[in-house]
Design goal:
By secondary structure, the chain is α+β, with helices and mostly antiparallel strands. The chain has helices at 3-35, 42-50, 64-95, 116-132, 134-140, 165-195, 204-222, 232-251, 255-287, 309-366, 373-402, 414-431, 451-468, 503-506, 525-535, and strands at residues 410-413, 435-440, 446-449, 474-481, 487-494, 539-545, 548-554. A 5-stranded mixed beta sheet has the order 2-4-5-7-6. A two-stranded antiparallel sheet has the order 1-3. The longest helix is centred in the middle third of the chain and has 58 residues, at 309-366. The relative contact order is 0.05.
């Protein structure tokens, strides 16, 4: 059905519907009047006797059979017209609001935005008045002589004195038509509101109700705790702070309930206020920078948790303060380490460069024919190699830390890999007079790792031993299984220098076991080993016990 067809049908129904409704009302009044002619009530009989000259022929409709035939004939018409009226009203309700573009939806005019409550009242009033307008018709019809509907109503028979019956009938029909029309307009307007989903929004009380419902929903939703998986704590919170206060308000409607409410208030509120003030003081202290401040909390003796919701809040604030303090301390540590890093890198780069520049200047002055020229060139070459090694370690540390290194995990025999690395490093270790004591306690030594990366990890650990272990001491290498399908490699040695540093700091980049930084290391070996181990899905840890240093690799 196109738009013009819908508009045409809507216009026809808008005109015919109130007319059909009015005809139904008039016909209904007539039929009701005729039906009561032969079954008058006691009050009506007394009323007719009082005005007997006027109603002499009112109770005589020629015959009772003619009256019943009249009712049957026009009763069918009344039913048909009533069905047509209902269908027309339904059609108007269906068609209304759909004469614009679909994307625009149902549009409301100024009349549609009148308060919904007012429209409902006016609709009910118009419908009642329309029905009541049938009363004059019901009263006038019996007063006609011999009930001849084909003759004009006799003007001299005044049922509603001083107005003639014909005038009263015209006014009643006109009023009924106007009321039916007004009721239809109001009904169509409310239907448009429903279709536009504005029925409650345009209501005076509806706006307040929607705000009330929204407020209650927001309060209800906000009493849902984020860390409450099963909803038990949220239910308790709602019970205590929503349901219980409502119950106390209802209880206060009686004098006994008011006394009970006062007792409960004076027993509970002071402790809640004290706890609230403690929390305020704690938050103020933390805000002012006192991260060591902790709010006092009470513990539930049954489950060991906080005694109340405010205690839970205070405990959460304490945990936040603890975490913030740890983050601040970690940030201070990082800042200090960054400063040390810049200082160490500058020192490690500057030292060989300074030596190289100095010896090159000497060579320029003395020339290559100098008897010590070869010695100078060897020193420059040594410093160049050291600078190269430092640069390579620096790039490797950066790549290992970022994880930007290809890693192909395969099954590798850790015992065989260890033997291979020991064979390659034996000369360097023997120069220091180190005695290697290797023990294999693992039943299976296969691990999942990248061969190239694992080789570098073991190489770095053995190189660390050669640089910092006490000369002519023992080095213990243990290979064990942890019982959970993992293998651990432990390398222990006695440090040459005093280890007055924590394991965490020792694993940071450019950190060495000797404060003088006179060794040939770059301080990146342990950091690289840790990052490469993590890249292979393993764990790396070091332990310091006095001068005993132990590095552990778990794969």
């Amino acid at each position: 059905m196109n738009l013009n067809t819908r508009k045409g049908i809507y216009g026809v129904l808008s005109v015919l519907t109130p007319i059909i409704g009015t005809v139904c009302g008039v016909l209904g009044g007539v039929l009701f009047s005729v039906a009561n002619m032969y079954e008058p009530s006691r009050d009506e009989i007394l009323h007719w006797k009082e005005y007997e000259p006027m109603y002499t022929n009112a109770v005589h409709f020629v015959s009772e059979a003619d009256a019943k035939a009249f009712i049957g004939k026009y009763g069918i018409w009344l039913i048909v017209l009533a069905l047509v009226f209902v269908a027309a009203v339904v059609g108007l309700c269906i068609l209304t609001g759909h004469f614009g573009e679909k994307k625009d939806g149902v549009k409301l005019n100024s009349f549609d935005r009148v308060w919904t409550e007012l429209q409902i009242v006016l609709f009910a009033l118009a419908a009642c008045v329309a029905v009541y307008c049938a009363v004059p018709i019901y009263k006038i019809v019996p007063a006609t002589k011999m009930f001849s509907f084909y003759e004009p109503f006799i003007p001299n028979d005044y049922v509603f004195d001083p107005m003639p019956n014909s005038s009263m009938l015209v006014l009643a029909v006109a009023a009924m038509l106007a009321c039916v029309e007004l009721a239809l307009v109001l009904l169509i307007s409310m239907v448009k509101k429903i279709k536009a989903r504005e029925f409650l929004r345009t209501a005076l009380l509806g706006k307040a109700e929607m705000r009330l419902v929204t407020g209650v929903r927001n309060v209800w939703d906000k009493t849902t705790l984020p860390d409450d998986d099963n909803g038990h704590a949220s239910k308790q919170l709602r019970l205590k702070y929503i349901v219980v206060p409502i119950g106390m308000i209802l209880l206060a409607m009686t004098w006994v309930g008011a006394i009970v409410d006062l007792i409960i208030i004076f027993a509970i509120v002071p402790s809640k206020i004290r706890k609230y003030l403690d929390i305020r003081r704690g938050v103020a202290a933390v805000k002012d920078g006192d991260l060591a401040y902790r709010i006092a909390t009470e513990t539930n003796q049954r489950n060991g948790g906080p005694a109340s919701d405010l205690d839970k809040l205070a405990d959460d604030i304490n945990q936040i303060t603890t975490a913030t303090d740890a983050a601040v301390q970690n940030e201070l540590k990082n800042q200090r380490m960054k400063t040390d890093l810049i200082s160490n890198v500058s020192h490690d780069l500057k030292t060989p460069l300074t030596s190289m520049i100095s010896y090159l200047d000497i060579l320029k002055k003395e020339g290559l024919d100098s008897p010590r020229a070869q010695e100078y060139l060897d020193i420059v070459n040594e410093k160049t190699q050291k600078l190269k090694t430092l640069t390579e370690d620096l790039f490797e540390a950066a790549k290992a830390s970022s994880g930007n290194i290809p890693c192909e995990i395969t099954t590798i025999d850790l015992a065989d890999m260890l033997e291979q690395e020991l064979a390659e490093m034996c000369d360097l270790l023997n120069e220091k007079g180190l005695e290697l004591i290797k023990t294999v306690r693992a039943s299976k030594t296969e691990v999942r790792a990248d061969g190239r990366l694992l080789s570098r990890v073991i190489e770095n650990l053995l190189a660390n031993v050669s640089k910092y272990a006490l000369e002519k001491s023992r080095v213990y290498i243990d290979l064990t299984d942890t019982g959970d399908d993992r293998v651990r490699l432990d390398i222990k040695n006695i440090s040459r220098d005093q280890l007055n540093i924590s394991p965490e700091e020792l694993m940071e980049r450019f950190t060495r076991g000797d404060d003088s930084r006179n060794t040939e290391g770059s301080g990146l070996g342990l950091a690289i080993a840790k990052d490469l181990t993590h890249l292979m899905g393993g764990a790396f840890d070091i332990t310091i016990d006095g001068d005993m240093f132990k590095a552990s690799v778990l794969l």
